[in-house]
Structures are given as C-alpha cells and as structure tokens.
Design a protein that fits this description.
The protein is of the alpha/beta class. It has a single domain, classed as 3-Layer(aba) Sandwich (Rossmann fold), CATH 3.40.50. The chain is built from 9 helices and 7 strands; from the N terminus they run βαβαβαβαβααβαααβ. It has helices spanning 24-35, 50-53, 72-85, 109-137, 149-152, 158-178, 196-199, 203-210, 221-231; strands at residues 15-18, 39-44, 62-66, 91-94, 140-145, 183-190, 243-246. β2 (39-44), α2 (50-53) and β3 (62-66) form a beta-alpha-beta unit. α4 packs parallel to α6. The longest helix has 29 residues, at 109-137. It starts with 14 loop residues before the first strand and ends in an 8-residue tail after the last strand.
C-alpha cells in the first residue's frame, strides 16, 4: 500500500503589530488581521477604547500596548511586551499619526516638529525596531500608512504632507535594503476616510474633497484595511516599494 498523502499544515496566525491601532484606520486594520486568524497587537497613546479594554466584541486575541512613537524607550517597551505575549512581530503596520493644521505662515516650530516626529520619525523608530527580528527570520511584511495629501497637497497641511511624502522615500529605500531577506516594504495612501482625523478638517473642506473623488464617497477604515491586508499577504509576496492609493481616484496615481 502506498503511504497516505501528506497534507500541508495550516499556516499559524502571524504576529501583527499595528501602531495607532485604537481607532479609525488602525483599528480597522487590526480587525481585518484578527479576522484572518492572526495574533494582533495595537499601540495607543493615551487610553484604549472600551472594545480594546475588554468591554466589546473585538477583544479576543487583540493586545493593546501603550506607546508614544516619539519616545524611543516606549517603542522598545511596546515591542518587548508584544514579543513576550505573542512572539516576534512578522507584520508591522505603521499607522500612528497626528495633525496640527494651519497655514505655513502661522505654523510654529512646535506644530511642525510634533507632526514630523510622530508621522515620519516615529515610523523610523518602529520600523527600525521591527526589522531586527524580520532580518533574523529572513521574512517580514511592512506597510506604511501615508496619505493622498503626500501627492495631491492640502492647504494648511504642509507639515502633514511633508511627513507623509517622506514615508514613500523611506519605504522605497528600505525595500532595496531588505529585499534580499524576503522582507517587503510598501505604502498605502488613503484619501478621504471616515475617521475623526478627516472630520477635524471641517465639513466644508471634506465636501470640497469629495466633489473631486470619482467614486463620490468617503472610504471606510475597512476599505483601507483590505489594501493593507493584501500587501501583507502571500499574494503580494512579489510586491515591494509600491504605493497603493486607496482614495476613490482622488489623486489618480500622482
């Protein structure tokens, strides 16, 4: 008798870390990876929302970790906590971000520095820390959350646009550094997404932007999460250094 056919073992859930994952796009990404069977941790700056604190339906296998990405010590502590609880990070989604909107002539250095330090330098910190285990393992997926503002521009968001544009250069340079280790580095560039951050622009500005969106609607966090999950999947194993717009056609691939 011939030996029974061997079946490939099911892939165990990966360890995923989403920075800024307590709400909006970040929480949408965390939920998507959780639904795929991954073990997911999210960072938060002040306090996790109720559903991450244990009072809602999305708490299973979701680990909330405090972290201000402007503080290298907190970044190190966050990774250490995730590694102890779940294992080494295999998928990193750098999503944490802030806005301090005002016209450039009114923009003080504090507003500039906070946005650059959080949205660009903070990404450098978490990616640099996350790469350590990925390089040793010869595998990994890194997805940076940029913005359509990096390509389309937006008055009052010079600091935000500069930081989000910087992520493209970071990703493409890093993709060339670590590609030989089977680590991919890609960027998602959301447009008008139904989040608190977009709401802070004011309804008039949001409506102006929506008038330029061919699909004629706001994205949901789940729309962006689908793109992030794809870039972290095996189906995207040969994609690196790419920018994937999730903007309903607003920037048309600028």
């Amino acid at each position: 008798m011939s030996a029974p056919a061997q079946t490939a073992p099911e892939r165990a859930g990966r360890v995923v870390l989403v920075t800024g994952g307590s709400r909006g796009i970040g929480l949408g990404c965390a939920r998507r990876f959780q639904a795929l069977g991954d073990r997911v941790a999210v960072t938060y700056k002040t306090a996790p929302p109720a559903e991450l604190a244990g009072d809602g339906p999305h708490t299973v296998d979701l680990l909330p970790v405090p972290c201000d990405v402007r503080d290298p010590a907190q970044v190190e502590s966050a990774f250490a906590a995730v590694e102890e609880a779940l294992g080494t990070v295999e998928v990193l989604v750098a999503n944490a971000g802030v806005t301090q909107d005002t016209l450039l002539l009114r923009m003080g250095e504090d507003a500039w520095n906070e946005v650059i330090d959080t949205n660009l330098t903070g990404v450098y910190r978490v990616v640099r820390r996350g790469l350590k285990s990925m390089v040793r393992a010869h595998r990994g997926r890194i997805v940076l959350v940029s913005s359509v503002v990096a390509f389309f521009g937006s008055p009052g968001q010079v600091n935000y646009g500069a930081a989000k544009a910087g992520l493209v250069g970071l990703a493409r340079s890093l993709a060339r550094e670590v590609g030989s280790r089977d680590i991919t580095v890609n960027v998602v560039a959301p447009g008008v997404v139904d989040t608190d951050m977009i709401a802070s622009l004011g309804e008039q500005r949001v409506e102006q932007l929506l008038a330029l969106v061919p699909l004629g609607r706001r994205a949901s966090p789940a729309d962006v999460a689908g793109a992030v999950a794809f870039l972290a999947s095996d189906d995207a194993a040969y994609i690196t250094g790419a920018v994937l717009p999730v903007d309903g056609g607003l920037a048309m691939g600028m």
